[in-house]
Amino acid sequence: GGPALSPTPPAPLPSRALSQGFSSTFTGERRPKSDGVFEALGATDELSSAIGLAREFCSEKGHAFVEQLHRVQCMLQDAGSNIATPLSSARQAHLKRTSFSEKPVLELEQWIDKYSEELPPLRAFILPSGGRSSAALHVSRAVCRRAERCVVPLVQAGEADPNVAKYLNRLSDYLFVLARYAAMKEGQEEKIYIKSEP
Question: Where is the Cobalamin adenosyltransferase-like domain (predicted)?
Fold first, then answer.
């Protein structure tokens, strides 16, 4: 007989099946979905969503700082671009588009100082409270702390810009101060921690 025919190659898997368990970074690198880059991206996205909800509550109350929260959400988008561009696989063109400067960090510090000056000093541990605006800002603060915990290992590994971690660190302080400021402006009572009797 004639030469043996080569076996028919298997049909290519659907693209959806290929993507299960893996995602691509901005640099085109394929990594498991459990990779720290995607953990950090998910946390910053959740943070922006929490701030978006808080911003809606604050807008309903006519707070002047809602434009600051909008700016913060835009900065978190930029932070996400930096996180999605691991420095180990980034080319110069990537770095130019996704760098994250210290300027937004300094801006946050100015806002923190501005609102802190108007607040009464803390004399007890404040529980998340003080009306819907304040409580939603406290939720945002807690999510921000988690986002920072996700980003720090990437910075330590040299994969993300240290300014992203600095920004999240200062952002949680800003959100805490802003939560207190919103409660004060709305005339809402902040609940304080009271130790239970043994």
Answer: 20-182
